[in-house]
From TrEMBL:
Residues 627-668, 669-711, 712-754, 755-793 form the EGF-like domain. Gene3D superfamilies: Green fluorescent protein, Laminin, Thyroglobulin type-1, TolB, C-terminal domain. Its main location: secreted. InterPro entries: 6-blade_b-propeller_TolB-like (IPR011042), cEGF (IPR026823), Cueball_EGF_LRP_Nidogen (IPR050778), EGF (IPR000742), EGF-like_Ca-bd_dom (IPR001881), EGF-type_Asp/Asn_hydroxyl_site (IPR000152), EGF_Ca-bd_CS (IPR018097), G2_nidogen/fibulin_G2F (IPR006605). This is Nidogen 1a. The keyword Nucleotidyltransferase does not apply. It comes from Pygocentrus nattereri (Red-bellied piranha).
């Protein structure tokens, strides 16, 4: 509803020339009072002078509250301490919060120019400010400021290296505030605006939030708003135009204490000047296939001025020249779109089939419609897409993928190769903002890729904010298409081809894209930054092909402050498959223009991540803008999971996207699985996801051909006639069908399989003997020879010599020969090659006694500065037994310690140190109950290593191709280990010796940390503490069957454990400060304990949970039945505790299909709920490796 003030204003009769609107420009005498007579203070004379000013009342700026400001000579007021001027002059937006009244390199050294400032709460001045604000916002409630800041720059010269040109500018900034809202009033008298640039840079006016926190320790450029653009004419117009009804006066809402969306400009332009009559015309098509775009603007009255480029769209400058007068079609200007005859445009897989037998080809959010020649899919209301893929309107979109290829940098003859680098993208669909990050980019190419923000440009095109009557890419082509872009750098800088294959929506409702880069880019040195100005690109649409061509400029700033402007030509071809059976469908406009602004590019040399961000709009090729409704500009306050619905004029409403509830400004996910328990039908598990849900078949069932009904898997139910599982595999194919096939090492039809005698074609070494077994064979060296049977030799070394050579092989080469890597133990051998009785660790200074096999003798370890008397030690035959009962094993910075349990109580006085590596940070820890070995992850090397529970040497297992290993878990039955890598964002598995590595999961991971194995049931569990969407997930041990178990009400789920006795999955959360448990697959989540401080690791034993806490530097014991804390163990040295695990005296009982003969697998055997999978290591060169899925 209009306020009474606005109705009164309208009732004045001729509102074009109402009392609140003045067509004359302001003069210096129209400024707010300033100078010494007004009680002002003044800045010291000079250039780039800053004065900190504590405030009587705070100022609201964006969503922050500030109690002090910084006034600077260079025409701005900062909300944070400003950086040096080289960082922001000509390079907006700056890294700090800024109100730029008129930013430039200014100088008051001549004593004539002055910068005055004061705080003012006098009624006269506050009323003057209120008049300007209320006139500028006639539809809003009346504003009555209680405090104002007045800053005036008077007769200021530019600071020019060749001396002053004696031109002077005068302008003023007033910040007026109520309790919870602040406004900026900018005044530019016509006579006071004599120059528009300094040092070659156009001066700027606008608002900039500065850098803001992003994810954990990262920062990104926050929002900013430009009143002027990079043209001097936009600065001239500051004194000629207005958004407040008075020329030269500009009013903006700049901050509120809650729900601030963006800078809001005043609403009263000079109505006579803003009046524009539109003129429509047809875009002609020319014989050679070129698209001709006529450069013109709608007809304007010759005596009227346009506000284009300053008031509404300063940050969206039009790429076309403005022409007034009549249209001249006989002499057109055109944009050339190059055709490529080699590109393959496929025909949609829609055929003459009907919806009756093809409905499953449509999205579950689409309707199928039959036509005369076939069928088409159409997204339902509330969704958009091509019918085969439909997504909810207003819902943010995530995109994951890989980047590969080869890029030459400059004249280098050696390319930089990419192989499966992670690409992650997040798009706020209701305002067109897109964020893209590519990881593991080496420094040798990272800075040189900064200009290529268009790598993410096609993502921006797909989800651009739609102007009325126009469609973004996903609305037209869906999520399956191919984009090929050629980037030609001007001046012989090379050519790069970017091919992106979009593969639709995966099981997590994320879009999948694979990107390949091939070609050459110009060299940019380390430390260089790149600024990309707003740009536009015209897209030409046909049935199955979209073309675009444009030129783009970018400015490179080197570390010494020098700049250079460069250009490249961008040519893009998008091929897709459309449905052409619907002849009544509304045609897509043949041409559309993508407008891109707020482009941000950054390469981090420390974490090797390349980041791009941009805002995208799709609309008319002539740059004609609709009314400034917030839904079309993106400057609304709707939730990121909401749809902005435009109303009349500037009115709009916010509606939560499908799958969410709320008032539109705050939206919450609907848990369809909880609210509608039977939504998925019988024999299914419902998996809730943001904005939607997914139905999965229970174990023993699988989807029928309709993709919805879960039917009995005949193979898992043992309703088949295949041979026994040790010889054959049954593969269910749906309905009553299945396939029988013999396992490797057997031959037959699958129903009857016979063993193959592998020893017939001599597979072993000539000095070895082959022994055939069921489905496999073994090789053993003959007496007098040594080796694994595949390689045998007569040379023999002692165990100590082999151990020492292996350790030295991984040592660093120093000036006097090999020297151990810090933290590595090198054994010493006597003259006979046997272990010396005393062994010492060169880095830590610890020494201990060993037996003839090099095993540490329990109780002999001494600290730095002393040595044990090993000659007096009585050696024990066989392994030293553990103390009675089980033990807690935990990591404390660079130490691994254990403390025995008596029953389930901690024997605190019996704590011992297993290993001390002071230069390491040990994070994750796991225990192999078979070999009594402790495995751990180290993030400093980084590496994965192991050591015997009773101490001894540290044995490195994995030291390459590893980023930040954190969680680790052991499958004691299948003899494999699993770990998470939070830098490479993946989960890997290998054999226990670190060989046979394979990446299991590398998609949709942000910060994976703890990981667990349940080998008896064939599952792994892990948590991801991604601050934006933390979750706990499960998968089969071969990486299949992945699903989210918990995603709601999580903060930082650092700690995770599986209680095998009770089949309970428990976790401790440092964000919610809770310990919770649930049975996987059941909705029985329950809180065990509340009020924990900062848990990191957790393990379960009997009725107790044991967790480590960073703030308490302790191991805390919790009875998970009563939900009470029962005990606390404080180590002797108080430092941060990391991972914790349980060392059982005896291995837990359980069966696994991988426990016997490696499950019949040649390499990795990974258990699944239905059997096992035989998998090959990544990049396996062994041709004998065979992969298969075996169900029993």
């Amino acid at each position: 509803h209009y306020s009474q003030k606005f109705r009164d204003w309208l009732s004045g009769g001729n509102f074009f020339l109402g009392l609140s609107v003045s067509v004359s420009s302001i003069n210096p005498q129209d400024l707010f009072p300033f100078g010494s007579s007004a009680g002002d203070q003044s800045l010291n004379q000079g250039t780039d002078v800053t004065q900190e000013v504590p405030l009587d009342k705070p100022v609201m700026f964006y969503d922050g509250k500030f109690s002090k400001i910084y006034i600077n000579t260079n025409g701005f007021v900062a909300l944070d301490k400003p950086s040096v001027q080289l960082e922001y002059l000509g390079n907006m937006p700056a890294s700090f919060g800024m109100i730029a009244a008129l930013l430039g390199d200014l100088d008051t050294s001549d004593g004539v120019g002055k910068v005055y400032f004061r705080q003012d709460s006098t009624p006269a001045l506050l009323q003057q400010a209120a008049n300007y604000i209320n006139t500028a916002f006639p539809k809003s409630d009346e504003v009555n400021p209680i405090h104002a800041i007045v800053v005036t720059w008077v007769d200021i010269e530019s600071h020019e290296p060749d001396g002053p040109d004696h031109k002077r500018n005068t302008f003023q900034l007033v910040v007026a505030s109520e309790e919870k809202i602040s406004y900026a009033i900018l005044l530019y008298p016509r006579e006071g605006m004599q120059y528009q640039s300094t040092r070659g840079y156009t001066m700027h006016a606008g608002f900039n939030k500065g850098q803001e926190a992003y994810f954990l320790y990262r920062k990104r450029q926050g929002p900013y708003y430009r009143i002027t653009d990079d043209k001097k004419t936009s600065v001239q117009k500051l004194a000629q135009q207005t958004n407040s009804g008075k020329r030269g006066v500009w009013v903006y809402e700049i901050g509120t204490s809650s729900q601030f969306s963006n800078i809001v400009p005043g609403e009263v332009a000079l109505l006579q000047e803003a009046e524009v009559l539109s003129q429509s015309y047809q875009v002609p098509k020319y014989p050679d296939g070129q698209l001709v775009v006529l450069e013109h603007t709608p007809y304007q009255h010759s005596q009227q001025e346009t506000l284009e480029g300053v008031y509404h769209k300063a940050e969206h400058p039009s790429p076309y020249q403005v022409h007034t007068g009549d249209l001249q079609p006989g002499n057109p200007h055109f944009v050339e779109i190059e055709e490529d005859d080699n590109i393959q445009v496929g025909v949609f897989t829609y055929s003459s089939q009907t919806c009756a037998n093809s409905r499953q080809e449509c999205s579950s959010f689409a309707d199928c419609q039959d036509y005369a020649t076939g069928f088409c899919c159409h997204c339902r209301p509330g969704f958009y897409g091509n019918g085969k893929q439909c997504i909810a309107e207003g819902k943010p979109q995530r995109m994951n993928g890989k980047v590969s290829g080869r890029v030459f940098v400059g004249s280098s003859p050696i390319p930089v190769e990419f192989a499966n680098n992670d690409l992650h993208s997040y798009v706020v669909a209701n305002d067109g903002r897109a964020y893209i990050a590519i990881s593991a980019i080496p420094s040798s190419v990272g800075f040189s890729l900064l200009p290529l923000a268009s790598v993410g440009g096609v993502i921006g095109w797909a989800f651009a904010l739609q102007q009325p009557g126009f469609k973004n890419g996903f609305s037209i082509v869906g999520g399956e298409f191919t984009s090929q872009a050629d980037v030609t750098f001007q001046g012989g800088g090379g050519k790069l081809t970017i091919t992106q294959d979009f593969r639709g929506i995966d099981e997590h409702d994320h879009l999948v894209v694979n990107t390949r880069l091939e070609g050459t880019v110009p060299t940019l040195p380390p430390g260089a930054t790149v600024q990309i100005d707003p740009y536009s690109a015209v897209y030409l649409y046909s049935n199955n092909l979209i073309n675009s061509s444009s030129s783009r400029d970018y400015v490179v700033t080197l570390e010494d402050g020098s700049t250079v402007t460069r250009t490249y030509k961008w040519t893009e071809r998008i091929s897709f498959q459309s449905c052409q059976h619907d002849r009544t469908a509304r045609p897509v406009p043949q041409t559309q223009m993508l407008s891109v602004d707020q482009v941000f590019v950054m390469y981090s040399d420390s974490d090797h991540v390349l980041r791009y961000a941009m805002s995208n709009k799709i609309g008319d090729i002539n740059g004609v803008q609709p009314e400034e409704n917030a839904c079309y500009t993106g400057r609304h306050s709707c939730d990121t999971n909401a749809v902005c619905q435009p109303g009349q004029g500037n009115q709009f409403t916010c509606e939560c996207a499908t799958g969410f509830n709320g008032d539109g400004r705050t939206c919450y996910d609907i848990d369809e699985c909880r609210e509608t328990p039977h939504i998925c039908g019988p024999n299914t598990i419902c998996n809730n996801q943001p904005g939607t849900y997914r139905c999965e078949c229970m174990e023993g069932f699988q989807f029928a051909s309709d993709g919805k009904t879960c039917v009995v898997d005949l193979c898992r139910a043992d309703l088949h006639d295949c041979d026994v599982p040790v010889r054959a595999q049954c593969s269910y194919t749906g309905g009553s069908s299945y396939i029988c096939s013999c396992l490797p090492g057997f031959v037959g039809d699958g129903r009857t399989c016979q063993d193959i005698d592998e020893c017939q074609p001599s597979r072993c070494h000539q000095d070895a003997v082959c022994h055939n077994t069921q489905g496999s064979f073994t090789c053993r060296c003959r007496p007098g020879f040594h080796g694994d049977g595949f390689h045998c030799s007569q040379e023999q070394k002692t165990r100590c010599q082999v151990h020492r050579e292996r350790a030295l092989a991984s040592a660093e080469l120093g000036p006097r020969g090999p020297r151990p890597v810090p933290g590595q133990y090198i054994p010493t051998c006597d003259s006979q090659g046997e272990y010396e009785s005393m062994q010492c660790h060169s880095s830590s200074g610890y020494c201990w006694c060993v037996d003839q096999d090099g095993t540490e003798i329990y109780g002999t370890r001494t600290g730095p500065g002393s040595t044990p008397s090993c000659d007096q030690v009585t050696l024990t035959v066989g392994p030293v037994p553990l103390l009675s009962g089980s033990h807690l094993v935990f990591a404390q910075s660079g130490k691994i310690e254990y403390v025995p349990l008596e029953g389930q109580d901690i024997k605190k006085d019996k704590a011992k140190t297993v290993l001390h590596l002071p230069e390491k940070v040990i994070v994750g820890i796991a225990y192999d109950c078979v070999d009594k070995m402790v495995y751990w992850t180290d993030i400093t090397s980084p590496a994965i290593s192991k050591v015997h529970l009773q101490g001894g040497e540290a044995i490195p297992l994995i030291t390459s191709d590893i980023g930040s290993p954190e969680g680790i878990a052991i499958d004691h039955l299948g003899r494999t280990m699993f770990w998470t890598d939070s830098t490479k964002d993946r989960i890997e598995v290998s054999s226990l010796d670190g060989t046979k590595r394979r990446v299991l999961i590398d998609m949709d991971l942000e910060n994976p940390r703890p990981i667990l194995t349940d080998p008896t049931n064939g599952y792994i569990y892990w948590s991801d503490w991604n601050r934006e969407s933390p979750k706990i997930e499960a998968a089969h041990m071969d990486g299949t069957g992945r699903r989210i178990l918990v995603k709601d009400n999580l903060g930082l789920p650092n700690a995770l454990t599986y209680d095998t006795q009770n089949s309970m999955l428990c976790w401790a959360d440092a964000g919610t400060h809770k310990v919770e448990c649930m049975k996987p697959g059941f909705s029985d989540r329950r809180q065990v304990l509340q009020g924990v401080q900062y848990p990191f690791g957790i393990t379960a034993y009997g009725k107790n949970l044991y967790y480590t806490d960073w703030k308490r530097d302790a191991v805390i014991v919790v009875d998970h039945h009563s939900g009470r804390e029962t005990d606390e163990f404080l180590p002797q040295v108080r430092t941060r505790l990391y991972g914790i695990t349980l060392a059982y005296r005896q291995c837990p009982t359980g069966r696994s299909h991988c426990a016997v003969n490696n499950g019949g697998c040649t390499h990795l055997c990974l258990a699944t709920p239905a059997g096992r999978s035989c998998l090959c290591p990544d990049n396996a060169a062994d041709m004998s490796c065979q992969e298969q899925r075996i169900q029993v």
